[in-house]
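Marked as duplicate of an earlier ticket. Keeping the data here for the record.
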Amino acid sequence: MTPSRATAGMERRIFLIATEESGDRLGANLMKVLRQRLGDGVRFEGIGGRAMAREGLESLFPIEELSIIGLAAVVKDLPKILGLIKETAIAVTEAAPDILVIIDSPDFTHRVAKRVRAKDPGFRSSTMCRPRSGRGGPAGRARC
């Protein structure tokens, strides 16, 4: 059995992307659990809000930049959104993390992951979904 990078004294680098408050809370919880398990053997980079910042993440940009409501606003802000997708994909590629964890906003995060995989088809990524509740579907089912 081969020891993991963390147990072999190597640092795990994880790039997380959460662009909504609910995803920010999920990301913060993930960071907390991974830090409990890996101690100083983990480093986080990416995009997140206040909860992830409390866990030590310095966000690439404020998640409020993606708080866009309505079709007219999306059309107006499309160049900015596309620029943030490109900027984020470049940041992921340059960071060369062990894994990319995308948490919410599939219109944004999946486009970032697609760009990263276009540069490196073997790149590892994972999607973290929040459980559905209420009108969104049966409780306990993943919503991504």
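See parent ticket for discussion. Residues 1-7, 137-144 have pLDDT under 50 and may be disordered.
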